[in-house]
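Complex 323.
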Amino acid sequence: MISFKTLLAQENAAPELIDLVAVILSTCHHIAEQVGHGALGNTLGATDAENVQGEVQKKLDVIANDLLIEALTAHGSVRAIASEEEEHARLACSGAPYLVAFDPLDGSSNIDVNGQIGTIFTILKARDDVPDHSDEQFFQTGRDQLCAGYVLYGPYTTLVVSTGAVVHEFTLNKSSGEFISSKKDMVFQQGTREFSANMANLFYWPKPFQNYITSLIAPQPANTRFNMRWQGAMVGDVHRILARGGVFIYPSDTRDVAQPAKLRLLYEAFPMALLVEAAGGCGYTEAGRILDTPLTQLHQRTPVILGDKNWANACFTALLIIN
Ligand code: AHG
Ligand code: MN
Ligand code: MN
Ligand code: MN
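Predicted structure with manganese (II) ion bound:
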């Protein structure tokens, strides 16, 4: 039974970095326990607050956010923290080497229906050229990530983590709190004819992309047809394609000219793109590679295409016709 510490050490991850990942994971174990109480705990339902993105915060969004901030602030290796649920970056420990950004609870709309939810995180190097507490600390590209991962609180709790070289999957032993290796070196499966997209938005996608997706679901011989899955939680949908291939797509939407994309670059697209690319897949926005996109606003949004190298490329090309 190999622990995540051993596997990350084999990739020459610094001991301090491994220690920081351990803090995130023990907090995720705690979140998993809270999630597991369901209706018997005081964790379901909404608060009466909104986050900076105008979303009503669920109780679990706030619980998971507070647990992560408390643990990371106490740890001493984190200079600044950024969260989906907080307007600005917050100072943790001046002069410390790392930055952590996270989506404390991804898939909030699934909380009350016992659907898939998870925590997504990324770790970057702190910058000495901007103030310790500033949003600018995080203004880096996806290639600057030192480590990224997610914990999926499904029927069992799964961790997928990478420093950018290889991707490993672990399963939480709920009694010991340890994440035990369950898939070493995940490799993206090519050729799976399954895509993940919110088809309810089809008519609001750019027209050539509508045509492309419609061509996939048009009647065709059984062995060439495409299948569709949508969990409504990026963490669950991306886990599915990492586990069995396919493509996850969240394109821009023509309804909102000011804010055409939904997903957030820093704590959703960057970490998922690092994992997908390290497994041999590919990640695009509508303008280039996700990992090459510079972050210029903490809660910057981006269109997302993640998956099978050839297929992600075809989706990107279909979108490029428009741009
Ligand atoms: P969050 O719950 O962290 O706000 O993120 C929700 C995101 C993402 O997880 C998912 O892919 C997408 O929203 C689902 O959007 P739809 O409402 O289009 O299903
Ligand atoms: Mn949200
Ligand atoms: Mn999210
Ligand atoms: Mn969230």
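The pocket of manganese (II) ion (ligand 3) is lined by residues 103, 106, 234, 268 (CB under 6 Å).
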